[in-house]
Amino acid sequence: MANVRVYGATRQSASRAGSPTLTGVLLGAVLVIAWVALVWVTHNGVGLSAWGVGALLGVVVAKVARPPGKATGMLAAVLTIGTVLLAKVCVVVFALQPILHDELARNQETITALYMVEMTKSRSFSPALQADLESHPAVVRDTGLFGAGYELRYRMISEAQTRAREASRPERERLVRVHLDRFISKLGFWVLFAATFRLLDLLWIGLGVSTAWKLGQGIG
User: Fold this and answer.
1) String of b and e for 58-71 (b: at least 16 CB within 10 Å)?
2) pLDDT value of position 45
3) What is d(CA 128, CA 106) in angstroms, rounded to the nearest whole number?
4) Distance of alpha carbon 69 from alpha carbon 215, whole angstroms
5) Which of 41, 78, 98, 151 counts the most CB atoms within 10 A of its CB?
6) pTM for the whole thing?
């Protein structure tokens, strides 16, 4: 009976050992959500997170595996790459545009520039300035630092700055949304995705992958 209990205990222990792949995938999904939430809150790409992702996946995969080895080290490394890439995709899809909207709506220079574009296109400067712009088109095109062209541009900028200072938050958001969304649609997803990678990000990803490879083998 004692032998039966021993063998039974061994089988139960083996059955309780989970799948390193499934566990790693589930943990990766949690880490993706956490990463996107962190980017949303901080308005920062937090590239350093890639190193932490590799360390966590390596440790967890090694603990679940029976026993850990080079195969589980490779698994942890692959899961790290997949998790980082998926996190970057989710940042572009769910977080990047709202972050840009918020930051640009709070930037006075950006709002002034957008008002300049909108007021010029809609011809909505003050009546006196608008009359001068329409009656002297050649002067407006004068890019000199002095003279009538400079004076007209200065008046245009002044009126745009006034509109920007007086604009409500919803109006600022509308202005940014109209112009930014059009610009983003022209760039396309892959350009935005590539823009989330900086040189330092590649370093953190490399450290994350190498850490996952090492810890995933149970080497620590």
Assistant:
1) bbbbbebbeebeee
2) 87
3) 30
4) 10
5) 78
6) 0.75
Question: Which value, to the nearest 10 degrees, does the dihedral of the CA atoms of residues 137, 143, 149, 155 take?
Answer: 100
pLDDT at residue 9 in the model = 44
190 in Cβ contact with 37 (< 8 Å)? no
Torsion angle (degrees, nearest 10) of CA 75, 79, 82, 83: -170
Supply φ then ψ for residue 198, to 5 degrees: -110, 170
Instruction: Using CB atoms within 10 Å of the CB of residue 23, give its burial: 0 to 12 exposed, 13 to 18 middle, 19+ buried.
Output: middle
DSSP at 144: -
- Give pLDDT tens digits for 195-220: 889 889 999 999 999 999 999 998 86
pLDDT digits (tens, 9 = 90+) for 46-64: 899 999 999 999 999 999 9
103-111 long-range Cβ contacts below 8 angstroms, 24+ apart: 103/43, 104/176, 104/180, 105/169, 105/172, 105/173, 105/175, 105/176, 106/172, 108/164, 108/165, 110/176, 111/164, 111/167, 111/172, 111/175, 111/176
Output the six-digit token pair for 34: 């956490």
Summarised one tens digit per residue, pLDDT across range 88-129 is: 999 999 998 888 888 889 999 999 999 998 998 888 999 998
d(CA 40, CA 25): 23
